[in-house]
Task: structure prediction
Amino acid sequence: GPIENYSPVTAQRLENPEPSNWMLYRRTYDGQGYSPLDQINTSNVKNLTPVWTFATGVVEGHEAPPIVNNGVMFVATPMGQVIALNAKTGDEYWRYKRQLPDDLFQLHPTSRGVGLWEDKLYLATTDDHVVALDAKTGKVVWDTKVQDYKKGQYMTLMPLIIDGKVIVGGSGGEFGVRGYVAAYDAKDGKELWRTYTIPGEGEPGHDTWQGDDWKNGGGSAWMTGNYDKETKTIYWGVGNAAPWPGEMHPGDNLYTSSVLALDPSNGKIKTYHQYHQNDSWDWDEVEAPMLIDLQRNGRNIKSLVHPGRDAIFWVLERTPTKINYVAGWPFVSTDVWKGIDAESGRPIVDPDHKPTVGKRVEFCPSLWGGKDWPSAAYSQKTGLVYVPANENFCGGFTGEKLPLKPGELWLGTKPEDIGLKTKPGADHFGELQAWDPVTGKKVWQHNFPKSQLFGSVTATAGDLVFVGGTNDRNFRAFNAKTGELLWEQKTNSGIMGMPSSYEIDGTQYIAIQSGWGVDAQRIQDALATNNIGIESNVPQGGVIWVFALKK
Ligand SMILES: O=C(O)c1cc(C(=O)O)c2c(n1)C(=O)C(=O)c1cc(C(=O)O)[nH]c1-2
Ligand SMILES: [Ca+2]
Result:
């Protein structure tokens, strides 16, 4: 039935969220993925136990954080479903199920969550609509078509809500779209602005493209941005260039593989930083950088921290008008970069490991990168950044000039040619890493001998780091200071989703969706064919798990 006492979401509540709630993708606009709750801590986490579970009824990758607003939980699942639950008891209030078109091909069948504003919530769908639901009843309030799914345009992200605007970005980098970020009026779904991530004729940066390449150059923007509420600047990550081999789109290709600084009032690009130029590896840099205040060499830095898919741990400085390169270093081994220009921050590419047309080229890490979309986290207590990384994976493909057919994959190689190879003798793959972003030192690391790590990380004030992401279906808690494994729980499926934490009536809860699929499974299939004793059969089917301390 309908929710009776729903707390409307305001700008003030999103800017300064109560510690008990998780209303934004990473809980706060700075994207740190940190909960200030500390009832569950390093000494008692061994007593963490499931209090309720709830089957979502669908397969594929469940990637969304359970979003919680004063006792009400909203969960987005694959196939355009939203479930509203009593966050304490697990009882269902309502369920929205989108009727997806029969001919919809979903390359990435997932949703990373619902955004909240006033008494509504907002879902971005794989058939490329933004839908507003009444938070109390789940009824559709408005439904706006963004672009055409038949042309390979779709959405998987959780909308970013800023002051009555629903801000989304499109997917489709593997279909040769031209990426964009767009804002809709939360009240009625009218489009307020749209900013293409690839500059058109006459716009600054257009000259980093040749001919008509920009029209289908990729630069999709498929993850939620972060937001600096002081300077009113959105930091939004931009994806790979299309098709993959850089030879097919010569130039730096702004703003692919970049971060854009956007004005939320009109979508204008204030400034940008491009992590790597002429992307050729499918290295989307879509995870928005975390906004962290750092003390470096006696100086206060308002930083942007981004462990990249390109294997480089990036530290940048944000000023109202400019983004400056501060430091960068590889956080997993890579043969693609020979170094980084100390002044500009441009990585120096080794042409032997840059995919090209007509020849097979191998590169490390693989096209899933040092880390893909699963989010890193930052703990304000330890001052460390926690990265879900993958080591000992390499990839390769033969570039091929193929014509663009709207709505069909346009990779610049044959899909069956995409490889993932493990380094001979590798003793592990997934790594949970803890980095000091000031000194650039790795403080600890936990290795996963038989699994990739493909899950988002959440840190808490209880000095804990929570992550799933492995093919053995475990959900784990680590000591944030030392990396000691303190607790694990086997779940129904593998966990790709993001843990969230909330509090009701004095009890702290940890929530996660377990439901394996999408690219975690693609890597799993690749591992299974590498003949290294890793099977492919991670069971699928989504379940929401909620944990608390045993009473
Ligand atoms: O270029 C794009 O538009 C695009 C979109 C998505 C997506 O929307 O999920 C992914 C990717 N690329 C991608 O390269 C990738 O590795 C990936 C993994 C996943 C996933 O959900 O596990 N999505 C995506
Ligand atoms: Ca991509």
